[in-house]
Design a protein that fits this description.
Structural class: mainly beta
Radius of gyration: 14 Å
Low-confidence stretches: none
Strand content: over 45%
Mean pLDDT: 94
Shape: globular
Helix content: under 10%
Order of helices and strands: EEEEEEEEEEE
Largest sheet: 7 strands, mixed
Number of helices: 0
Amino acid sequence: VQLVESGGGSVQAGGSLKLSCTGFGNILRPCAMGWHRQAPGKEREWISILSNDDDGTTTYADSVKGRFTISHDNARNTLYLQINGLKTEDTAVYYCAASTYDLLGTKCTITYWGQGTQVTVSS
């Protein structure tokens, strides 16, 4: 399974981007899909999760709440992240991820990662 992100780029503060992630069609019933990011010199952090087990419940990190929107197109098997109001601190490599249940079906954990797409925000 290969997840592939696209849509990153260089934008000025206040601008918008829409990231895409394909490859979910090859994953059998992911329990969750999400976006993470890693800024230079920092650990990877989750920023948004879409739960397939909770009727599509979405969750956002406080740092992006109100500016980022996660969505999934079932027909295209594509996960999106709409990013508005970009800030310089949003500069990072953005990764999509898919979670699946363990063999017991009790724990939903990240199983697949994309290779990342760079987002650079200038002031």
